[in-house]
Design brief:
Blueprint: H1 3-12, H2 16-20, H3 28-42, H4 51-67, H5 70-84, H6 104-111, H7 118-122, E1 130-133, E2 136-139, E3 150-156, H8 158-163, E4 165-176, E5 192-193, E6 202-206, E7 212-216, E8 225-226, E9 239-250, E10 259-262, E11 278-284, E12 290-293, E13 296-303, H9 305-310, E14 312-318, E15 321-328, E16 337-340, E17 355-361, H10 369-381, H11 391-394
Parallel strand pairs: 3-11, 13-17
Antiparallel strand pairs: 1-2, 4-9, 5-8, 6-7, 10-11, 12-13, 14-15, 16-17
Helix pairs in contact: 3-4
């Protein structure tokens, strides 16, 4: 049994009258009254979390969509009559000589008075979900589409970039139209199969030579169905905008300008498709003391001439931790960088980089009398040992 035939038999075996709790000869008013009563009792908004009632609501809506419409009801009754008389029991064969079944499409074409067969007779009854591919009709369902990817920028502090932080983002993204729910049709109107693609959602276009490619149908936009009246809110596009706030986790160790992907935080999907992704470009504000080089933090440490000349133990800060002591040997030149291991930024493997502390001699702008006297004495003590003696010779 083909997929199409299985679909027909499935509907033929459903008793929509029993689903609504009415008799087969019930009037339209009786059917409508029964539907409204069941719909109110089983509506998802009134029964949150009750899966059984949700399923019942869907089944009731499906039944009323068929038997609540006089034209559809007539076609449904004819199909049920064929099924009840045993007309389907010989199988759903292709009608070949010697085969065990018969061609149901031919039977229904005759029943409908020489029309276009099952697809034409019952296309409207089943929502028009039939497209022609390869010479045969197959049931088509709207294809699931992933939601729109969204991009935004977030500015965080230097410390938050090192430690990681959860931030609140206000996003505006593409979303299904709130009035037509993405169908593009005027609310309250019913769709029919797109005549351009015959419900496939795509058309075959020549790519040159013997090659061809599938392109999204230009008329229905891949929705497979079209409406005679466009939604007045989105003008038939089926799209709108959605503004929302989300909480986003920025991982520890993020760098300035880094682009972070947050799966499933983008725009909502269509027809059961997954949500899009959110891409956040992080801007890191500078720190008053610390800088960053890859996974290492940097720090400029001011020192005096005597501390470098004679040596000293110098306390320096770390980011978010206790100070550490830097042992500066005697004779250390200005500009030398010391490495303090494990006091840098977090790495991808969970370890940490280092703190690179660079000592820089600070020259006082003003000297008191005692300090001036000491510096003058040092100058006299080092006379005869010019620092630039070889500079001009080499030049």
């Amino acid at each position: 049994m083909s997929t199409t035939d299985g679909f027909r038999a499935d509907w033929a075996q459903k008793d929509f009258y029993a689903e609504l709790g009415v008799k087969k000869d019930a009037s339209n008013d009786e059917i409508k009254k029964a539907y409204r009563k069941l719909a109110r009792a089983n509506h998802p908004d009134s029964n949150p979390g009750d899966t059984a009632k949700h399923d019942k609501f869907k089944a009731v809506a499906e039944a009323y969509d068929v038997v609540g419409d006089p034209e559809k009801r007539k076609k449904y009754d004819e199909m049920r009559e064929l099924y009840g008389s045993g007309g389907f029991r010989g199988g759903f064969g292709g009608g070949q000589p010697g085969g065990g079944g018969f061609n149901l499409d031919d039977l229904l074409r005759d029943r409908a008075g020489g029309g276009g067969g099952f697809g034409d007779m019952f296309g409207d009854l089943f929502g028009g979900g039939f497209g022609r591919q390869g010479g045969r009709r197959q049931q088509q369902r709207p294809r699931a589409q992933k939601g729109q990817d969204v991009e935004t920028t977030a500015t965080i502090s230097f410390t938050d970039a090192i430690d990681g932080v959860t931030i609140s983002l206000r996003l505006t993204s593409d979303a299904p139209c709130p009035d037509c729910h993405g169908t593009g049709g005027k609310p309250g109107t019913k769709p029919h199969v797109c005549p351009e693609c015959e419900g496939a959602g795509f058309v075959v276009a020549s790519a040159g030579g013997a090659f061809s490619i599938n392109e999204t149908c230009p008329r229905c936009g891949g929705r497979q169905l079209i409406y005679d009246e466009a939604c007045p809110t989105c003008h038939g596009s089926g799209r709108g905008t959605s503004a929302r706030s989300i909480q986003a986790r920025i991982p520890a160790g993020v760098r300035d300008g880094q682009r972070i992907r947050l799966r499933g935080k983008g725009g909502a999907g269509e027809n059961g498709g997954p949500a899009g992704d959110l891409y956040v470009t992080v801007k890191v504000a500078p720190h008053r003391l610390f800088g960053r080089k890859a996974d290492n933090l940097t720090l400029d440490v001011p020192v005096s001439f005597d501390e470098l000349a004679l040596g000293a133990d110098i306390k320096i800060p770390t980011l978010g931790g206790a100070p550490v002591t830097l042992k500066v040997p005697a004779g250390t030149p200005s500009g030398r960088t010391f490495r303090v291991r494990g006091k840098g930024a977090p790495k991808a493997d969970g370890s940490k980089g280092d703190l690179l502390a660079t000592v820089e001699v600070q020259v006082p702008a003003v000297l008191d009398a005692k300090a001036r006297e000491a510096v003058q004495a040092y100058r006299e003590a080092t006379t005869g040992k010019p620092l630039r003696s070889g500079l001009f010779e080499e030049a």
